[in-house]
Amino acid sequence: MARRRRLIKNDEDHDPMAVLTNLFDVAMVFAVALMVALVTRFDMTEMFSQEDFTVVKNPGTEQMEIITKKGEKIEKYTPSEDQSGKNSRGKRVGTAYQLENGEIIYVPE
Hints:
alpha+beta, 3-stranded antiparallel β-sheet, two-stranded antiparallel ribbon, 3 helices, elongated, transmembrane helix, DUF2149, transmembrane, membrane, DUF2149 domain-containing protein
């Protein structure tokens, strides 16, 4: 009888499913830690706040993107060649200058 109890007890210690559940737990902790690290690395904590904001990625380049959050709505705007290139139908209305202290002054033409 005692031998049977020892055999049953040893079988419980070597349950292959227990290893899989432990690996799943470790993978979930790793995934959450990776998401937190990516959010803090790319300064995206604003996405989770209640405040409205605007972010300009790659300003002044062809890959420029403007990301705006108003309330719960997040919009991404990418200027196309038609809007900012030779084919635009707008006209120049003035010039903006940035002073050394960061202040911007607009001078109409």
